[in-house]
Amino acid sequence: MASQKASAAKLAEVAGQAKACTRCPLYRNATQTIFGEGPVGAKLMLVGEQPGDQEDIAGHPFVGPAGKILDRALVDAGIDRTQVYVTNVVKHFKNEPRGKKRLHKKPNRYEVEVCKVWLAREVSLVKPGLVVAMGMTAAEALAGRPMTLARERGKEIGFDAGQRGMVTVHPSSILRVPDRAARHKAYAGFVRDLKQALKVLQAA
Ligand code: URA
User: Fold this and answer.
1) Contact 172 CB / ligand 1 (< 6 Å)
2) Which domains does the chain have, with CATH numbers?
3) Which of 4, 8, 73, 108 is the most buried (most CB within 10 A)?
């Protein structure tokens, strides 16, 4: 479709602009901007918090440990990742150097607010049928209000700007569950939410 081609070209242009982003100080400690990836016209958009250490080095979203969980959950939910647009609210890895390590730091409200301009461009050009926020940072940024994950996960809600949305856990939260049985349960809940996202899309 000609208009999808134009949107894809525009999205590539926007990604190029984001590479030079200095809207907040996070670019100083990061290797590069990690923009979203996936096809324009993707029915499903998945939004995380920010790239992690491995994403920052590789230059792609969700390729580290959280990405591996996401990949497995997508397969288990019957979703092809190549047909999904995957991105983050914040496009630079916020970290604090600690010896040879870089510790992940949660982005603050200001960093989320100024970075949201890129996510808004992604949503308007990809035009997904459903945006799934993974974790509280993405959920609150997209909903524009405080959220209670346990109450609102797995069902369709309206995001800011009228976008159809859904909220689920962040895949890295599954990795942090210490007990094996509880971790299985958390993973199963994540897969269930992704399956529900498919159902919502199919019912539209
Ligand atoms: N966590 C995120 O929120 N996004 C990534 O891309 C990787 C880990």
Assistant:
1) yes
2) 2-203 (3.40.470.10)
3) 73
Kindly give the number of the ligand 1 atom that is closest to the alpha carbon of 64: 7
Residue 35 CB–ligand 1 contact under 6 Å: no
**What pTM does this model have?**
0.97
pLDDT digit string (tens) for the chain, length 204 residues: 559 999 999 999 999 999 999 999 999 999 999 999 999 999 999 999 999 999 999 999 999 999 999 999 999 999 999 999 999 999 999 999 999 999 999 999 999 999 999 999 999 999 999 999 999 999 999 999 999 999 999 999 999 889 999 999 999 999 999 999 999 999 999 999 999 999 999 997
